[in-house]
Request: fold
Amino acid sequence: MCDLHDQHEHNTALMASGPQLSRRRIMQLLGAAGVTAAAMTAEADPAMAAASESADEAPAAYRAPEGLAEDSPGKAAALAWITSNTSRITGLNAEIWENAELSLREWKSSIAEAQFLERAGFDVRFGTAGFPTAFTATFSYGSGGPVLGFSGEYDALPGLSQNKGVGHHDPREYVHDPFAPGYGPGHGCGHSALGTAAAAAAAAVAQAAKKHKLPVTVKFFGSTAEETLIGKTYAVSRGVYKGLDAFLDWHPSTANATGWGTTTAMTAVTFTFLGVAGHGGTPLGNKSALDAAVMMATMSEFLREENLAPSGRLHWVINNGGDIPNVTPEIAEISYYVREGSPARVQVLLDKVVAVAEAAAKASQTKVQHRITSACWNQLPSKSFAELLHENMRQIGPPAFPDEAHTLAKELQESLGLPQQGMHARIGDLTPPNPAFLGGGSTDVADISWNVPTVSMGAALAPIGTKMHTWSTASCAAAAPGQAAVVAAAKYLAATAMDLITQPARLKAVKDEFKERTKGVEWKTALPEGYEPPMYEPPAWFLKKTGQKWPPNNITWPPQRVVSKEKFSSLGPELAPQT
Reply:
């Protein structure tokens, strides 16, 4: 999901792998079904055009500018604060890692992060955009200074439980079920470190601004449910991020790098098929909702050759397929992530997926309904912002990985059948994005990027060659690799933010580029009209501790029940008895 930094690494590798191709030549290779030149024009697709602007720059000719990042007393103070508070920072990462709470249910993790910021002088308000585990923390000093935003996430992923620092697959929580064994949740995307480093950077900037009397407002957004791309997309539609001058974002990765490439827009949709249950031993007349889901999955695979461009992605999972073979499933659900280069291109592909669902329902004599659970834009990059961040990363240097971090990384690489290269211990070169967009990951930060100038970067938390959303990442997230990465990421973000405060020209360049890129593009949420985000009812202790009431006024509670009222299918007239 939040794998844009893996995508940046892949793009960089492609650039270095052979002769540089022109955009025109790449378009020819992709063919008419790919990302055509016409699709890149502002008239045809303004969102893709704005996000890909400057992608034509020849990678071999580009040289990252120097002299953007400057030493200052404020920056030195921010970096010193992070160094002197390293144990607190790594301790928060470890605490959130231990919690391993799933999207929309990060009860303990959100409180831990909020308390960290309260100790740094921030005013914390829970319930941002109606999400119980989302919060906004604000620190202000003086008046007239820039308003800078930081992004924090803290949700884990299901099924990725792993013991900390172990070089082979060793689930920390094993779910024993004789029919369906599994694993508990784990931080296989490193969000324990993500939220921690962002909070540490925000706190460091606040302390430095106070010490050196630098006017600024620092806003930290504790964001729920990134793994389902729900938290930020909905919050943006509610105006949560209005009034910011710049937004700084990072994500755990397998490399230390930044850039100004874009991401895929995405719509997440769940199809619910309703049939009629019956005994599996007497199946005639039953209506299997699972049959419908399987037919849909099979038919949607046939979209790939002629309906899916190189920039598109289509993946699915049957998240409710029945309980026991002896009962025909009356209800079944299949969820899709539909990704493309822009919201307009996502919609074209989504319409085809919906048509497949309707065909599956008709063939299986079931009923189908669908609901969009999330939707986000492609990210609007910022070249000038990335150049400033990259120079700070170079000046600070790569994460200080101890020997045990490389040892763990090599054990994991051996376990996964990868070359034993250890951790990425350098700062990646800053290179232009690929001339043609070939798809990849999505992020709910993308919607923020169309409303405020945004920069994103990755810091190496997982070994070279591995991927996010894996148990191996969970092994590293709060062990030696992750603890080094979280400190480095905090310093990269804090140093860049301090440049925006002390160098008005840098902030102006970032804002001017944003204004130029967004000409002719009107951002509108990709969420459907009347959208209500999914939520879980919080425990009473959480509501009391955070001062919230349930339910928030933007959702219907309890949610509408989904109940099948279908009838058995007819087999026609009774057959005459044989004599």
